[in-house]
Each structure stands twice: as C-alpha cells, then as structure tokens.
Hints:
The structure holds 2 protein chains of 2 kinds. Chain A is mainly α. Helices cover 67% and strands 0% of the residues of chain A. The model of chain B is unreliable at 1-9 (pLDDT under 50). Chain B is globular, with a radius of gyration of 30 Å. Chain B folds into 2 domains: 69-182 and 267-402, Orthogonal Bundle (MetI-like fold); 185-252, no CATH class. Chain B is mostly helical. Chains A and B meet through helix 3, helix 8, helix 9, helix 13 and helix 15 of A and helix 2, helix 4, helix 5, helix 12 and helix 13 of B.
Amino acid sequence: MTTNSMTYVRDNFIAPEAPPLSNASVIGWMRTNLFSSWKDTLLTLLAAAAVLYLLPPAIDWLFISAVWTGVDRTACLTVDQGGQLASGWSGACWAYVGDRFEQFMFGSYPRDLLWRPLLVVGLFVALLTPLLIPRVPRKGLNALLLLVALPIVAFVLLLGGPFGLRHVETTLWGGLMVTLIISFVGIAISLPVGILLALGRRSQMPIVKMSCIAFIELVRGVPLITVLFMASVLLPLFLEPGNNIDKFLRALIGVSIFASAYMAEVIRGGLQAIPKGQYEAADALGLNYPYKMMFVILPQALKLVIPGIVNTFIGMFKDTSLVTIISMYDLLGIVKASFGDSGWITPVTPLTGLIFAGFVFWLFCFSMSRYSAFVEHRLDKSYQR
Amino acid sequence: MALADTREGSGDPPKVSLFYNPKLRSYLFQALTLLFIVWVIWYAWHNAAQNLARANMTAGFGFLKSRAGFDLAQSLIIYSSDSTYLRALQVGLINTLVVAAAGIVTATIVGLLIGTGRLSHNWLISRLCTVYIEIFRNIPPLLVIFFWYLGVLALLPSIRSIFQHLEENPDAVFFISNRGIYLPAPVSEDGFVAVVVALAIGIVAAIAFTFWANARQRATGRRPPVGLINIGLIVLPPLAVFFANGMPLSFDYPVPGSFNMRGGMVIGPEFLALYLALSLYTAAFIAEIVRAGIRGVPQGQTEAAYALGLRPRATTRLVVLPQALRIIIPPLTSQYLNLIKNSSLAVAVGYADLVAVGGTILNQSGRSIEVIAIWMVVYVSISLITSLFMNWFNAKMALVER
C-alpha cells in the first residue's frame, strides 16, 4: 500500500493554458470593445459607415484635390469660373493661404521690420518655456520677467519710437500677432487685478466687498461684445474732451476688464480652498494682511488654480476673435477681410481661410488645455502622496 | 531669552497708535475706496457731459420713441421701419431669446448624447465623441459661426436654381437655398383653438397621472406604465379634436416671387448659422460636464443598486442620474449663461438680436451711453433670472440630509 495513491494534491504542474481569446487577440478586443451586444454592433456599424462616408471626401478636399501652388485666384477656379481646373472641382485652396501667410501672421506690419515681432516671439518663447517646466527653479523671477519686463520690451520693440526705432502705427498691426498681444496683455493685467478683486470680494469691509461684487457680477453678466463696445465707444466719451485714445488700447482695456472679472472668480476659488488654519497660523505669526497674503495664502491658492488660470487664458484667447466686430484685424478678422480681396475671390476661399484660422486657434488652445491637464494631474498626485 | 521678554511684557497693555487701530484702518480704507469710486464716476460724468455738449447732444431715453427707419429681416412681432426704436429693441430682445432658447435645448440634447457617448464601452463611439469635443472646445465660437455662414450655408443652391427646381417639380413645398430654408407656414382656421385647449388638458392630465402613479408606487410598490400612458394622454385628445373639427389647419406654401420666394415660412441663414454654431459649440462643453457628473457618482452606487435587484435602466434613472445631476447643474448653469451671452455674436452675421439692433441704433442716433446701458441691464437681468431658476432647480435636486 503506497501513500501516494491516497493524495489529493497534484504533484506535477500542468502546462499553462493560453489566455482566453477575449483578452489576447484582435478579434477578442473587437468583441469586447466594438461588438459586445447587438445594440453595440449596430452603433459601431452606423458610426463606421458615417466615418467612411465623411472622412475620405474630407481628406480628398483638404489634401488630394487641394491646390498647393499658385499666384492668384485663377489657380483655384474651375474652367466655367474662368480658371484652369476641371469643372465640378472643389478642394482647399492652400495657395491662397501661402500667398497671404505673412499678412495672416503680422497684418500690415512693415515687411522690412518683421524682425521686431519675431524677436518678441523669440523672447516670449525663451521666457515661457522655463516657466512651464515644473523642474526649472526661480519661478518668481521668471514670472516677473514674463509678465512685467516682457510687455515693456515688447511695447517698445513693436511700437518703436525710442532708440531710433521707426514708429509703427497700431493700425498697421494685425493677424496672429494682434491675437497673441491682446490675449497676453489681457492675462498679464487680469492676474494682478483679479487677485485684488478676489481679495476685495472676500474682505470684511462692506464697501470694498460690495463694490468688488458689483464689478465682478456686472462684467460677468454681460457679453464681451458689450464690454468691447463700451471700451471702444464710451471710453473716448468718458475721458477728457478732445482726447484721441488709440483704438488698439481701447480694445486692450475692454479685454482686460473682462478677463479681470473672470480671473477674480477663479482666484477666489483658490482662496476658498485654503484651510482656515493657514490664515490663523499666519495671524498667529503676527504677519500683517499684505504679508499674510503674499507669503502664506496666495502662493498656495495660486498654485491650486493654475489649471483654472490656464482655462481662463484659453477662453480669453478664443474671445480675442471678437475684436473683429469692433473692426480690428486679429487673426480671424484679417482672414475674413481677405475673403473680399479681389486677388483671391473664389468659392472655396472662405472655407479654406476659416479652416486655416480654425487650425491655428485649435493648435494653441489644444496645447494649452493639454498643459492644464498635465498640471492638474501633477497637483492631484502631490495630494495623493 | 525668557528674561529679556519680561522687560516689556509687564504692566499696562501696550499702547497702539491710532495708525494701527484695525477698526480705524478699516474705516479709512473704505472711505478711500468710496472716494475713488465717486471720483471715477464724477470724472466720467463730467467729461461725458462736456463731450455731449460739444456734440450738441443731450442724454436721456426720450429718443426711444422716435422712428427707427430701418428694416429688420426676422421679426416675430409686428415691426416696420416706421416703428419706434423701442419696438426695434423689443424685436431684438425676442430674437435673442429665441436663438438662445433653441440653442440651449439643442446643446443640452447633443451634449447629453456626446457626453454619454464618450463614456461608452464602444471604442469607436467614445473616440468619435472625444474628437468632437476636442475640436469644438478649442476653436472660437465666432469662427464656428463664420464657418456655417460663409463656408457652408453660402454654398447652398441659389434662389434661381430653386426656381428652376420648382419648374421641374411644381409640387415641392420644402426648399433649402443660400437665402434660408423655406417651409410651408401653418395657418390656423376656426376651431383650431379647441385643438390647443385639448393639448393643454392632455398635458395637465399627464402631470396629474404621474403624481398619482408616484403615490401608487409608494403605496403598493407597483408602477403603472407611466411613459406610454402619458404619451397617449398628450397626443390622442388633440388629434381626436383635430379630426372631429374637420382638420382646421391649412398651409401657406412658399411660391416664387420676382426676386425671392414669397409666402410660407423662411428660416434665414443668419439664424441657422448662429443657432448651429451656438448649439454645437456649447454642446462640447456640456458633454464634458455630463461626463464629469456621471463619473463623479461612485461605482459602488451602481453595484449597490444591482445588489438590491434594480435593473440597469432603473439604476440609471433612480440612482445614478439624481446624484449626477447634483454635480452637473451648477456648471451647466454657467454654460447656459455663456450660450445666452454668446448669442450676441449674432451681430457678426447680421442676425437682428439685441446687440445687432442696438448697434444699428447706436450708429444711427449716436446714443451710445443709453444703448450700452440698455444692453447691460437686459443681459444682467437675463443672467440673474437664469441663475435664479437654475439655483431653484439645484436646491430641489440637492441632497436632503436628515
């Protein structure tokens, strides 16, 4: 009698089985993610049909049938319309975007002085990049340079005047340059003003509190267009008689007022998120109000709302397109104005121009939103430990 | 150290100079703020008065009674160029409300679909919804409006080709052209009022039935088929009355005029462009809010509902949705407000909304202060009313803690 025959435990390993088909193969993946039930299958088939119906013509319109080179509108016209392309043709006219590219970027800025905006862009990138990378030290100095020093340098460089730089009227500015300047100045002004308004709104002093609430709610309750109209129509009326305030400056003031109110609400959110103990600890240390805010509360609150600030900036960047309506030529404005340009009037010009402008806006906003998501993720982690 | 501290710690409380008295400081600060505000207002007022005097103008709202002298393309109330400025502004306000209401409804529906679609287990659907959201969230609404207006609607068939089409198919009643969509306009005849009354009675009956069904469910645990019966209650009585009264409704068909279509109902390209752009743009934001709301309800809630034996649909309706709504409503409110404010972009395509009409009046009469004041008052009131309503709705939905 051997003990071996009594055992219930297997004494040799069996060979491992292959993973079930549903996890390993492409077919398995498709079964769980595309065809899990008959409703799912129907949805997938409908969606796939829609994609197959829309995507190839779109790619064809955008790239394959598109006209890439040409000097004037005849390049993008069919035979019946007075051009060379086969009748019935339709496609993007990228030749027009290529021809107008400098104008879309810089407006009517003198072509021999383009190094000035380009230098500003270079400085901007050089200062912004280290600010965005969390590991690089000296954030305070960096932010100060970007938000205070750069606007002054950029102002002198772009407008000209001192140091023998030729004066360039703001009416000649245009294109993406104007979009970037307005949104950047908007943010640079709205940050400090927004902080003051947010602190004012949380203040114990009734008059300060009430006036901050009134300002914030009034501005947030009306559309940006009315604020822009106010800045462009009412501002000259409210200043000294005979003043001739620059149109560009008026738009800047309008956008800054609007952005400040929204920024104030974002920062207020951060202030509210700081535990009461932090305020009390600062009081216990004997710090006065400005010190308490500057060294204890604001550094924490601002760090918390970085995603909110970036989102406000994205909103501002998109909203600058509204200055088109008070007849200024930002990127969208100048693209739209070029539709009436007799050199490039074709049926496909508006669509091509709008797709180009949309792509540029999208590129900026999408990268900003990705960055905001990255910061949010990082902040989340630092709380999870 | 401890010894050194006693030097000044003993005796009377330290004398604080008036300069450091917190109460006095606060008064001083507020007085300065008030002074600053008063100065700004006085300065603006003073300059405005001088500037107006130079231009030989007076401020005041009397001009609202004078003749407008311009036509408006789309108007739901009676308006002609002989009407007053006030009437023109009323038309503008109604147009704003119409496009905002239509936009809010569409944006909510599309946003719900896209938001739940992005959470779908179906890979293709969730990817498509992500693409939609990432495209529309990152381009300016004004560009979307121009895209529809200049890029799409302007390329539709011209009126002349519609005339041609009509010669070939004389029975056609529905046209899409670059001047808008032409539809037959319903004209009510005698007895149609009864149909409307029947509809109203049906709706009231449906609401009453829902209350009764809820009470019955609480009492017996059985729920009558509410959805089906409600549809019947709302649809059947008006239909019955409609046929009993001999179909008292006729249509005014659009017919070709000399340059344009006459009669019927036309939905202009300006309205369409604005409506489509506002709905599709805001829908992307609403989709993200809906997604965040649904994901904000912990998985354990769904599992608990399943453990109690609820079916998936009942779980969604009774457990997930009420909790998700609590997260969704506050940001949804601000999106609605954004949509209402963005409807002012109408001025870019010439849809006669409040800002566009006001802008015309401003250019014509030069009454900038008054017009801008009207804009601000109207928009702030609309914003306040919307947030009051949504706050009420939010309070109704909020967790009742015992």
